[in-house]
């Protein structure tokens, strides 16, 4: 039932003594589409980094797909990450690889048998509307197309959970809407989707549950969405 459960979670960065998450409790159910909004520094990236075990909470408990994160210790950490697709600003496309190879690259690390790659990669590129650009290099793609390849890469292994941090960050309104439509389509197939964003117009156009963070605390949880900062 539950994909993400935070129970009284805090995260204090030792170096700066910053309390990035402060006694945060929330639940995201399997199959939900959720926006995470809040000013810069509110704790959105910290929330995602905890789910990926890139940061360890200094207090509280986190469960992902019913398992406490402590279950994914050591060599099990990659097993956790294999189940989570990510669209982050820092995972750029490899510029010497075609769109096809960039997406296929994600399958190499997940243990999907090679004979399944072509079908899977083509299907993922079809989902983002780029089936005809399989052989194209990133430099020959627009920013919007590049972001859609990054989405294809994130979904090609069919992850139960997709985390997107500012997925429309550099995009114009038309491309931003296209990215949102693709994320919604992925969600309709059963993937739980969490989108951290500053894009007020998108949050108000494509309505979904919206969690608002302020100084590491959950200050709003709106079932029907809306941007209230
Ligand atoms: P958001 O994604 O909403 O902009 P972040 O989670 O990145 O917020 O940041 C929350 C707070 O934690 C901010 O005050 C930020 O400066 C601080 N912070 C984030 N990452 C680190 C880090 N690696 N070391 C120290 N402080 C950090
Ligand atoms: P397998 O190795 O066959 O994937 P697991 O025990 O890892 O088996 O997972 C069992 C089920 O739980 C699978 O449906 C998997 O997708 C789901 N699952 C496991 N870990 C996670 C996770 N971190 N996030 C989301 N779903 C997960």
TrEMBL record:
One Gene Ontology term from the biological process aspect of the record: cell division
Membrane topology: Peripheral membrane protein
Subcellular location: Cell membrane
Annotated GO MF terms: ATP binding; ATP hydrolysis activity; transmembrane transporter activity
Subcellular location, principal: membrane
SMART domains the UniProt entry points to: AAA
Cellular component, GO annotation: plasma membrane
The entry's keywords: ATP-binding, Cell cycle, Cell division, Cell membrane, Membrane, Nucleotide-binding
Keyword Cell cycle: yes
Pfam families documented for this protein: ABC_tran
Coiled-coil stretches noted in the UniProt entry, renumbered to this chain: none
ABC transporter domain ranges (all copies): 4-228
Superkingdom of the organism of origin: Bacteria
PANTHER family (alphabetical): CELL DIVISION ATP-BINDING PROTEIN FTSE, IMPORT ATP-BINDING PROTEIN
Assembly and interaction partners: Homodimer. Forms a membrane-associated complex with FtsX.
NCBIfam families xref list: FtsE
Family: Belongs to the ABC transporter superfamily.
Role noted for this protein: Part of the ABC transporter FtsEX involved in cellular division.
Name this polypeptide is given: Cell division ATP-binding protein FtsE
Originating species: Deinococcus reticulitermitis
């Amino acid at each position: 039932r539950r994909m993400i459960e935070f129970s009284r979670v805090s995260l204090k960065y030792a170096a700066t003594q910053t309390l990035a998450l402060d006694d945060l409790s929330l639940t995201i159910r399997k199959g939900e589409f959720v926006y995470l909004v809040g000013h810069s520094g509110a704790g959105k990236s910290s929330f995602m980094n905890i789910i990926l075990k890139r940061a360890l909470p200094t207090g509280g408990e986190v469960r992902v797909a019913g398992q406490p994160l402590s279950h994914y210790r050591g060599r099990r950490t990659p097993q956790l990450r294999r189940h989570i697709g990510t669209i982050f600003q820092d995972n750029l496309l490899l510029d010497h690889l075609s769109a096809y190879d960039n997406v296929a690259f994600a399958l190499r690390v997940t243990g999907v048998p090679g004979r399944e790659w072509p079908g899977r990669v083509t299907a993922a590129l079809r989902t983002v509307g780029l089936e005809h650009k399989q052989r194209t290099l990133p430099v020959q793609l627009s920013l919007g197309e590049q972001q859609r390849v990054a989405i294809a890469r994130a979904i090609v292994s069919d992850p139960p959970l997709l985390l997107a941090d500012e997925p429309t960050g550099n995009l114009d309104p038309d491309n931003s809407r296209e990215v949102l439509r693709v994320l919604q389509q992925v969600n309709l197939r059963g993937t739980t989707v969490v989108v951290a964003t500053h894009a007020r117009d998108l949050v108000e156009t494509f309505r979904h549950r919206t969690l608002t963070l302020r100084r590491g605390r959950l200050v709003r949880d709106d079932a029907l969405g809306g941007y209230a900062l």
